[in-house]
Specification:
two-stranded antiparallel sheet; 8 strands
Length: 229
């Protein structure tokens, strides 16, 4: 039957409106679902990165604690204390010098540390297991002075040595039974040999993963480890 107003198909526009409404509704529902999925993926990635970041921080923290413990334990060793006192009392005696150097070399843990040395509280090198090719830098001097004042081991910053190795020093006081400072014992770690592989390790397969160690210097960011990307 024809519409009294002359519209031959009165339900046509109703169907068009219903179709448009349904299409818009489907688009909105799909977009909402997409947003939810994207948020889920973002949250999952953020949680994974946070977990890896916590793991890395714990690993680096454990590495630091082990180095501090080594330095403190070696500096308190009776054999090292005796050798240091004998050497300082007789610095020109070849036997005292060689005995002290051998003790320093022994505390390198069969090459785990690239050097071991004894210094004054001001940072002047008294003797080293391996000959030094450079004067000690400001960061190392600060660690030595901190150890001398606090009587606790202290780390230097990571830096590049004259032989192009990335190293970090840890210093601890050597004291006599009465508590007087004899000298400072210091271990030098090759960061590229032990610390950097620990930083590069990623617990899952990933072609884009990267962990960075950075330090702020004024208005600059200094990268302390080798960059993967």
């Amino acid at each position: 039957m024809a519409d009294p107003l002359g519209n031959k198909h009165p339900n046509k526009w109703n169907w068009i409106v219903a179709f448009v409404f349904a299409a818009v509704l489907m688009v909105l529902v799909g977009y909402r679902q997409y947003c939810n999925e994207a948020q889920f993926v973002d949250n999952d990635c953020a949680e994974n990165l946070a977990s890896v970041g916590t793991l890395k921080a714990n690993q680096i923290g454990e590495w630091r604690r082990e180095r501090l413990a080594d330095c403190k334990r070696f500096s308190q060793g009776p054999t090292l204390i005796k050798a240091a006192r004998n050497y300082l009392a007789n610095p020109e005696d070849p036997a005292c010098r060689e005995d002290f150097r051998n003790i320093l070399d022994l505390n390198r843990k069969t090459g785990f540390y690239c050097n071991a040395m004894a210094t004054t509280r001001e940072g002047a090198c008294l003797l080293a297991a391996e000959p030094l090719r450079e004067t000690l830098g400001n960061s190392t001097l600060l660690a030595i002075q901190t150890a001398a004042v606090t009587h606790e081991p202290a780390f230097s910053a990571i830096y590049r040595s004259s032989d192009d190795r990335v190293v970090i020093d840890v210093a601890a006081p050597v004291v006599d039974p009465g508590g007087s400072l004899i000298c400072i014992f210091m271990l030098r770690c090759d960061a590229s040999t032990y610390l950097y592989p620990l930083i590069r390790f990623w617990p899952t397969d990933s072609t884009t993963s990267e962990t960075l160690l950075v330090r702020r210097e004024g208005d600059r960011v200094v990268y302390l480890n080798d960059l993967r990307h």
